[in-house]
Specification:
This protein is an alpha/beta fold. Helix content is about 30%, strand content about 25%. The chain is built from six helices and twelve strands. A six-stranded parallel β-sheet has the order 1-12-7-4-2-3, with helices on both faces. A four-stranded mixed β-sheet has the order 8-5-6-9. A two-stranded antiparallel sheet has the order 10-11. The chain is elongated, with a radius of gyration of 23 Å.
């Protein structure tokens, strides 16, 4: 008997299993179904308040609206304040809102290099780090949050969770098959690699504006 088969036979005998692969498959499946959670710090803060604080610290700006119909006005308010273009690309879920009443031109498609402002939803948000979590898909183009200079993201208040662990638990419980891309966005893109000088927009948007929706 070859040495490899001899070793495997001894492992099977020790585990009293007909096939080592069966034991491994079961172990892997159990771990994926109930992944262990590492020790966590005391999280004695309000998730929403902590999320807003972390957004501010990561240079994201914030606004709040009670209903989705208020989104066009909130977007207009932000664009006007920052002297930004009123032409946007967005995820399909927002295209039917009353944009024309606010003088905004909007298209539902993925962003390309010439688009300056992108509007997306968010799967959830992580309070501990002020992070938005976005899942890519046919109705949620990844480029809309990555290519434009300005990224406006809508997050429902009920989808703000405390930790990264909570976010992954939510994804595992709701998403049958993970998408090609899961994005974690904590403020504008930035780097200090060159002469320790902080530069915004190095690998993505210069600005991130978060709109918290009550619904």
């Amino acid at each position: 008997m070859p040495a490899r088969e001899n070793i495997l036979a001894r492992i099977r005998a020790a585990n009293k299993a007909a096939n080592v692969a069966d034991v491994m498959d079961s172990s892997v499946a159990d771990r994926l179904a109930s992944p262990p959670i590492s020790p966590l710090p005391k999280l004695e803060w309000d998730p929403e308040g902590q999320f807003k604080l972390r957004c501010h610290e990561s240079a994201s700006t914030l606004d709040e609206i009670a209903q989705i119909d208020e989104l066009p006005r909130a977007v207009t308010r932000y664009l006007s304040k920052n002297t930004l273009p009123t032409k946007l690309v967005c995820w399909p879920e927002f295209i039917d809102l009353p944009w024309s009443a606010e003088g905004i031109q909007i298209e539902s498609r993925g962003a390309i290099g010439d688009d300056k402002v992108g509007l997306t939803g968010s799967y959830c948000a992580i309070a501990e780090t002020g992070t938005l979590v976005l899942l890519s898909g046919q109705e949620s183009h990844a480029t809309t949050s990555l290519l434009p200079e300005t990224h406006i993201a809508v997050i429902r208040r009920s989808r703000i969770v405390k930790t990264m662990e909570d976010a992954w638990q939510l994804i595992r419980g709701e998403v049958v098959l993970l998408p090609r891309q899961v994005s974690f966005i904590s403020g504008p893109s930035r780097t200090a690699d060159i002469e320790m000088t902080l530069v915004y927009g190095a690998h993505g948007p210069f600005r991130v504006h978060v709109i918290i929706l009550d619904q």
